[in-house]
Every structure is written in C-alpha cells, then in structure tokens.
Amino acid sequence: MKEVILNHPMIKHKISILRNEKTGTKEFRELVSEIAMLLCYEALKDAKTEKVDVTTPMAKTKCERVDENNYAFVPILRAGMGMVDGVLKLMPNAKIGHIGLYRNEETLEPVRYYCKLPENIKKKEVILLDPMLATGGSGSAAITMLKKDGVKKIKFLCVIAAPVGIERIKKDHPDVEIFCAQLDDKLNDIGYIVPGLGDAGDRIYGTK
Ligand code: PRP
Ligand code: URA
Questions:
Q1: Are 151 and 143 spatial neighbours (Cβ–Cβ below 8 Å)?
Q2: pLDDT over 70 for what percent of the chain?
Q3: Which residues of 4-39 are buried (b: 16+ CB within 10 A; e: fewer)?
Q4: Which of 38, 79, 114, 160 lies at a 20 to 30 A Cα distance from 28?
Q5: Residue 7's pLDDT is what?
Q6: Is the pTM of this model over 0.85?
Q7: Rounded to whole angstroms, how far apart are CA atoms 28 and 82?
Q8: Cβ(133) to ligand 1 under 6 A?
Q9: Angle of helix 25-43 relative to helix 9-19, nearest 10 degrees?
Q10: Distance separating alpha carbons of residues 124 and 105, to the nearest angstrom
C-alpha cells in the first residue's frame, strides 16, 4: 500500500491558514473539518456502488449508490474529533467509533484510555482520523486496536504527517493506506512536526 499526499492548490491554500499561529480557534476548526472532507472524498474513490432504479421528473433511470452501512469513522481522541464533522458531510450515515490515546510527553509512547467501536465493526471498512501523524506511535496503536477487533480494511486520514510517521505506519501496518493532506520536513526534539501547526488538540479546543 502506498501513501497518498493530496497535491492540490486549494489544500495548500487551506493549510497555509491552518499553520499560521495567528489563526483563531473557530477558523482552525472549520479548516480541519473542510480538509477532512476533502481527504475523505479522495479516500472513498474506490468505494463500491450498487445500481438502483430512480425516477426523475423526466424518466426512469439507473443510478449508483454507496452503502454507507459498510463504513465507520474512528477519530483518535481528542484531535481526531475535529475531523468528524467534515467526513460526516460526505457520508452522514456512517457509524462512528472512538479511540482515546494520548502521547506520554516524555516517552512519546501512546497511552490508551478509551475504546468504543460500533457493532459489527469487523464487517466495515474503517476510516481512522487524526490530524497529526508525528512519530506514528498513536496511529499504529489505534490500528492495532482495530485489527484486534477483527477490522480487515483500514484507511488512515491525516492533515499533516512527518516522514518518520508515514514510515512507521508502513512498517507496522503495510496493508493500511494513508491519505495525507501535506507531508512536512521532520520532527523536532520533543516530537512535534516542523513546520507543522503546533498542538492540534489545543488549537481545536482552545486549551492553550
Ligand atoms: C496528538 C495527535 C496524535 C498524536 C500524534 O495527540 O492528535 O494523536 O499526538 O503523535 P504521534 O504520531 O507521535 O503518536 P495528543 O497525544 O497530543 O493528544 P490530544 O489529541 O488529546 O491533544
Ligand atoms: N501532535 C500534535 O498535535 N502536533 C504535533 O506536531 C505532533 C503531535
């Protein structure tokens, strides 16, 4: 599986505003949500459709529909929640699970504190959401949790990734496709993405 980096002028435009330290909470949230919808649009390019009969005001015709019941969105708390509104605009009937992980600030290892997944998750394609893919520890741990519950097909959507995070996911979970809006240069010595956008959770929730 390869990673997909969205290389689109409008994504670059939105990320330029997102990165700016002067961008406030309201605009930051709106942009994360919009970028999430665009990432999801790209990730669902391979969605299977079924034929349905539709009568328009003019004629009977065949159309195609996606069965939303086959999908679940799973945000990694907290920051992943900022992507949920956007992906639901695209697929409003998908089920939603939650995985709670935070990074220990010293070891950078993910600490698990919550997991609630929809019924029959093993039969669904899971779209995992987290705006930041830094060391890849949180993403990898979340994917492991999903696989333990029997999930077979997982796509990981992130807004900004560091090369080391992408490599970690590819090594631990080569079957998972990554959709990333922008690939950054590196991590700094405390595990933050550079140039990045700072702490995504704090910027979405205004906690710092
Ligand atoms: C951030 C981010 C990812 C993780 C990425 O969450 O939202 O989950 O860090 O880092 P990693 O790739 O090195 O694991 P954080 O731990 O700050 O928790 P929060 O979302 O609750 O703020
Ligand atoms: N988590 C964030 O929110 N930002 C980073 O740069 C790295 C991890």
A1: no
A2: 100
A3: bebeeeebeebbeebbeeebeeeebbbbbbbbbbbb
A4: 114
A5: 84
A6: yes
A7: 9
A8: yes
A9: 150
A10: 33
Q: How far apart are CA 195 and CA 188, in angstroms?
A: 9
Q: Exposed, middle or buried by CB within 10 Å (0-12, 13-18, 19+), for 200?
A: buried
CA of 72 from ligand 2 middle (Å) equals 24
Per DSSP, 99 falls in state: E
Task: Give the separation between CA 166 and CA 151, rounded to whole angstroms.
Answer: 20
Does residue 19 carry a catalytic annotation?
no
What three-state secondary structure class fits 66?
A: coil
Inter-residue long-range contacts of 173-178, CB under 8 Å, 24+ positions, other chains counted: 173/140, 173/143, 173/144, 173/147, 174/1, 175/1, 176/1, 176/143, 177/1, 177/2, 177/3, 177/4, 177/43, 178/1, 178/3, 178/4, 178/133
DSSP calls for 125-174: EEEEE-SEESSSHHHHHHHHHHHHTT--EEEEEEEEE-HHHHHHHHHH-T
Residue 136: phi, psi to the nearest 5? 90, -5
- Residues 137-178: tens digit of each pLDDT: 999 999 999 999 999 999 999 999 999 999 999 999 999 999
Tokens 């140039």 sit on residue: 195
Q: Mark whether 107 is an active-site residue.
A: yes
Joined together, the tokens standing for residue 178 give: 């990554």
Ligand 1 site, residue 89, Cβ cutoff 6 A: no
- The token pair at 43 is 């990730």
